[in-house]
Amino acid sequence: xxxxxxxxxxxxxxxxxxxxxxxxxxxxxxxxxxxxxxxxxxxxxxxxxxxxxxxxxxxxxxxxxxxxxxxxxxxxxxxxxxxxxxxxxxxxxxxxxxxxxxxxxxxxxxxxxxxxxxxxxxxxxxxxxxxxxxxxxxxxxxxxxxxxxxxxxxxxxxxxxxxxxxxxxxxxxxxxxxxxxxxxxxxxxxxxxxxxxxxxxxxxxxxxxxxxxxxxxxxxxxxxxxxxxxxxxxxxxxxxxxxxxxxxxxxxxxxxxxxxxxxxxxxxxxxxxxxxxxxxxxxxxxxxxxxxxxxxxxxxxxxxxxxxxxxxxxxxxxxxxxxxxxxxxxxxxxxxxxxxxxxxxxxxxxxxxxxxxxxxxxxxxxxxxxxxxxxxxxxxxxxxxxxxxxxxxxxxxxxxxxxxxxxxxxxxxxxxxxxxxxxxxxxxxxxxxxxxxxxxxxxxx
Length: 445
Fold this sequence. Notes:
The protein is α/β, with parallel strands linked by helices. It contains 16 helices and 16 strands.
């Protein structure tokens, strides 16, 4: 375990040198003896950017002991930088897999003060002189951007508080012998919840499950046991396996539900999540009851995106869904929604970019490359023998509404099709009232 000596002559005169041992979030809580489940930390209090008393323990250091050495990997994959002091985290353990109580080993800034760092990393990157010079560069950047407010952090805390008030809890579910971890909001076990049917909400590209479904969780939780997973490489879900197709995502969700002892479930999937939901119903028909496919290009071909390229003047969907910079994110959001993104404060967009688009960039690009739906030479899409509700925004620029009609023809009489007037690619966010009422009518009928 790494430790850093703290020099404070005025406080330590006449005492042995102090060695500060920083403890990470290594504790794992068993959940009622169920295998593969871990409870998330529930820490809401604001932690100081300069001192976090919960994360440091002072112990006497033996006289003459050599100061600890911090070794640096030179790979830039997964590097993160502390905004407060310039320290670079570049360890083999992915930054996203660190606990929420992780703090900077130099200045004790909380985890939310780190951002992705793409510049080359030298072996002396955390030497004091190098770090101070880098800190000055950070000050210039922050000055150019303006005041940075952790909007995503506090917005997510607010949403998580609402979920907990509805009787949900955050869990990490390990499958594939620990190679894959899926984060999911699940209902607490109560007599009332045992009588409700299960409903799983599957996100699209962009935000994680927590941020993408808050309006729906509140609307659906009275009638359903709601499950809200993060798809792999979004939020806190991750895998070391090499598969990247939407079928692999569906397989992982099936294994997660097996661990959670869910044997029958309704599905609501939007965009990429709609493709995962469709695959889940196709491969595991005994598991799935009803399916809602919202704004999802299930019927797309390798030529479908040509219309999108002409509209946005880009040559790859990656530039919209996994943008390289803030301007690319603005373009993608402006295409996905009917809202005016230019009216959103810059500090909100900057924070969204750091939290949702900079993390796991390589893996998210691999997800797009690994899709079977829409690929050249893809096998014919199987029809599913389920009741399916197709819901689309009339102003969807990502997936042309004609794809909704194609899916209806493909499924025949077992499918219903409705459009939400004036909504874009994310009707669950743009028109949540209409979206929720129509989905509930279908699921409860």
